[in-house]
Design goal:
alpha+beta, 2 domains, five-stranded mixed sheet, two-stranded antiparallel ribbon, 6 helices
Amino acid sequence: MLTTPSPKQLPRQVDPRKFAQQEVVLQGTLPLAELERLSALAAGDQAEITAELEFGVDDQRHRLLTGKVSAKLQLTCERCMEACDQHIEGELALGIVWDEEQAKQLPRRLDAWIAPEGVSDIYEVIEEEILLGIPMGVYHDHQCVDLAHYSVGGDDGADETAAPAAERRNNPFQVLEQLKGTPK
């Protein structure tokens, strides 16, 4: 089993089938600048992206890529629009296949990595896993925006009973209430 030292940068191009046969283990970092889609989402250029990858072959002779990816980066908070530190982790369980037909035959526990013959870009696989791990909404852990900005009616002196009255006027079931004969 081959192992690369941990603090080194991972190679971008790998031969997944050859690595699977040789049971290669890769550990290292990736520069954010090399991950185009992720760097477009990042609020800053500082990030710590690491991966621990294991290539191998299982008992059913499926070529595999398993491992963990981790990213500490800054994304934009959706409340205050400032940089927000995020820690994203993901686990890989990929079957290395030639085409869609082979992908359909993989066990449910494996996702397909359709890789052409020869070398493939491992950065794309890692970037995809990190992108899938980004939460739907990115927010600071603390209250970063004053709650007064979210109040209904605000401080403009509007009557607080105006909203419920408008809601009653625009109630789509109002006609049904009249037909039923029990107005509220």
